[in-house]
Write a sequence for this structure.
């Protein structure tokens, strides 16, 4: 095996040396690594903000921060986790894995790839710098509803708008790159219906991004014009309508939540297939389920705004359309369970995260169904029940799948096995932490605790205390994750090229660590 | 990059631009949609049309509500808070307004009807909300609304609230227009 690797190396030049390697690189593996580290840094920053929020909510009354600062933390936590942590992590995984999975030598547009990564540190630098500006950082929530984000916004909102423009441009370029790569650079013989599911999930995600990121750019452009150029898109005084903002925002926002979960579906399918040592149950139904989820995601946006005063017919339409999404999602969960059924399962850390993903994401899906029931939503709207719901689909959903992916593919990236004992400890701490944090929020939400306030009524005190304890457990255990990753990068048991006994796919046919250039001559797929 | 990759790239870039413009197209689309469905309680000026007048009307109650937007300092309230009306008959109502500041100001009232499905049956022939209001310091006025309920108003609606929110638009009005209208007075 090792002689093969040596030969492979002889024909190609390696990476440039020094820091400039990372600035000027056009290599998909380097850029994938940059994305993943950037995302991890943002995950820690956004997580620190969550700790401020939970610390303030530990007890009723105001203890640690001012309400104004609490609002800024709330807003930045949401924006950073969505746009800075989850999305770049998936783009990083796509960069590393898509070319290797389809047998391509690199992404189709390597320079664009470099640009789309290097826009991100600037976008988030601008966003974070608003914390130090007069009037403070954006404080209107990650959904930035007008007129909170226009008439009543702090002056730093303009910086927020530009940073959204930049991160939007970065996502659009990234997704164009993914689509061009997948559509044009597959190895001979790899038909669309033979593509690995992670590639499929990213192909669909990239189309969603291209469809909705420009709408987000449009929304913030309208805000900019309302604030600085005297237009009245969202200002009732000039004939505009603030409800229009919510429609435009959620027309972007709902596909956005599927952008953050579809790649997770792809990852989970690979991991469960590998560790159950069985062929994935229902490959083509998985593809069709993802496609139908993506299409349905465009016609359900108003379920975020049942309480704005819509006619009965619209409320019914959006309720039923939303519930319809449960069908393809149910197909996927069924297929994962069916894949595990009578498989020879072993419980390595990626599998633990993947199984936790299936169970906990399903809980988040069910609370989503509860929220879809229009009359019930009037009660749940803007309570902690909603907070519990979307954290269940995003943290043990998207974030767990990203962690699963890191453990699953890190032997391929670094050539070293991670520390199985420590990583299991990381899993169990995260699993307990996530549930202790977010499960009680269902109850305090049903009991009527509104979201987005720094203070609350006394009857919510006990479960908020529990929730905060869980949040700090989850938060600190991510330091352990950082340690495990660093330890793996530095050294560890050498990984074989297949790494996992049941692993299938082109990325496992190259050496571990993956050589700087792979598949310079396309492999044959039959 | 080969030809087909270039083509994919071009198509996707066009897609991005289309979606950006689509987001702006949503603005007029939304207005058209609201107008067709009568959502948002939006009402437009109706033509003088005798066909709304009938002899077989039924009675209902109209409540008038006034709001001041943000820091709008004017005094603004309905002359009568509640009015008994009959469908198929014209009615007149007035709102009292006074500029309480020492500056000339321009205002715009924005109407809304609740329940919103009553909006399409409420026809306004005259309304101060159709135009901007200019008042000199301390000036006061009675603003008229002339309206009729279409006889086909659903029987379940026996109570309609007609609400006006008054906005300060002095900054938005062209200073020259402001000057002219002052001269006209």
């Amino acid at each position: 095996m090792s002689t093969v690797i040596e030969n492979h190396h002889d024909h190609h030049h390696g990476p440039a040396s020094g820091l400039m390697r990372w600035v000027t690189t056009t290599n998909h593996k380097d850029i994938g690594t940059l994305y993943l580290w950037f995302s991890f840094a943002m995950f820690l920053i956004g997580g620190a903000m969550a700790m401020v929020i939970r610390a303030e909510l530990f007890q009723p009354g105001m203890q640690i921060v001012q309400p104004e600062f609490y609002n800024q933390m709330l807003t930045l936590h949401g924006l950073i986790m969505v746009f800075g942590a989850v999305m770049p992590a998936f783009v990083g995984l796509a960069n590393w894995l898509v070319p290797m999975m389809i047998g391509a030598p690199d992404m189709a547009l390597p320079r664009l790839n470099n640009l789309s990564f290097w826009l991100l540190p600037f976008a988030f630098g601008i966003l974070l710098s608003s914390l130090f500006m007069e009037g403070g950082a954006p404080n209107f929530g990650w959904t930035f509803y007008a007129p909170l984000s226009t008439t009543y916004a702090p002056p730093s909102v303009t910086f927020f708008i530009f940073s959204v423009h930049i991160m939007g441009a970065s996502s659009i370029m990234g997704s164009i790159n993914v689509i061009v790569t997948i559509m044009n650079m597959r190895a001979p013989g790899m038909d669309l219906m033979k593509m690995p599911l992670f590639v499929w999930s990213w192909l669909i995600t990239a189309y969603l991004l291209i469809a909705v990121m420009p709408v987000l750019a449009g929304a913030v452009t309208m805000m900019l014009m309302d604030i600085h150029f005297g237009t009245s898109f969202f200002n009732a005084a000039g004939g505009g309508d603030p409800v229009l903002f919510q429609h435009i925002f959620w027309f972007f926002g709902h596909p956005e939540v599927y952008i953050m979960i579809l790649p997770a579906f792809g990852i989970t399918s690979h991991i469960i297939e590998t560790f159950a040592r069985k062929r994935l149950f229902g490959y083509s139904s998985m593809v069709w389920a993802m496609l139908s989820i993506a299409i349905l995601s465009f016609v359900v946006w108003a379920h975020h705004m049942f309480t704005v005063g819509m006619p009965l017919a619209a409320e019914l339409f959006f309720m039923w359309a939303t519930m319809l999404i449960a069908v393809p999602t149910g197909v996927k969960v069924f297929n994962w369970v069916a894949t595990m059924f009578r498989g020879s399962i072993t419980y390595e850390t990626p599998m633990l995260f993947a199984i936790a993903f299936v169970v906990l994401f399903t809980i988040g899906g069910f609370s989503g169904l509860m929220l879809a029931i229009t009359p019930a939503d009037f009660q749940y709207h803007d309570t902690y029940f909603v907070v519990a719901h979307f954290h269940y689909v995003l943290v043990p959903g998207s974030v767990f799948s990203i962690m699963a992916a890191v453990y699953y593919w890190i032997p391929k990236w670094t050539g070293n096995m991670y520390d199985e004992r420590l990583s299991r400890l990381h899993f169990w701490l995260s699993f307990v932490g996530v549930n202790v944090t977010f499960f009680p929020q269902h109850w305090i939400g049903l009991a009527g605790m509104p979201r987005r306030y720094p203070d609350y009524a006394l009857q919510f005190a006990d479960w908020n205390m529990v929730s905060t304890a869980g949040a700090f457990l989850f938060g600190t255990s991510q330091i352990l994750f950082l340690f495990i990753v660093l330890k793996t990068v530095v050294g560890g048991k050498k990984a074989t090229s297949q790494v996992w006994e049941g692993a299938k796919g082109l990325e496992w046919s190259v050496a571990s660590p993956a050589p700087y250039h792979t598949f310079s001559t396309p492999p044959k797929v039959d | 990059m080969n030809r087909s990759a270039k083509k994919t790239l071009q198509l996707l870039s066009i897609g991005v631009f289309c979606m950006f413009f689509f987001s702006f197209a949503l603005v007029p689309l939304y207005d058209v949609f609201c107008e067709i469905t009568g959502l948002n309680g939006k009402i437009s000026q109706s033509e003088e049309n005798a066909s709304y007048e009938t002899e077989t009307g039924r009675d209902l109650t109209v409540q008038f509500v006034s709001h001041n937007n943000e820091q709008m300092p004017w005094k603004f309230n309905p002359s009568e808070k509640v009015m008994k009306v009959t469908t198929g008959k014209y009615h007149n109502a007035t709102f009292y307004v006074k500029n309480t500041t020492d500056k000339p100001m321009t205002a715009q009232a924005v109407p809304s009807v609740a329940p919103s499905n009553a909006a399409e049956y409420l026809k306004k022939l005259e309304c101060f909300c159709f135009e901007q209001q200019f008042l000199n310091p301390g000036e006061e006025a009675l603003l008229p609304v002339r309206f009729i309920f279409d006889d086909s108003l659903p029987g379940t609606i026996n109570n309609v609230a007609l609400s006006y929110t008054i906005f300060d638009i002095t900054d938005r009005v062209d200073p020259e227009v402001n000057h002219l209208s002052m001269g006209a007075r």
Q: What stands out?
A: Residues 67-102 of chain A form the longest helix (36 residues). Residues 18-509 of chain A form a domain with the Cytochrome C Oxidase; Chain A fold (CATH 1.20.210.10).
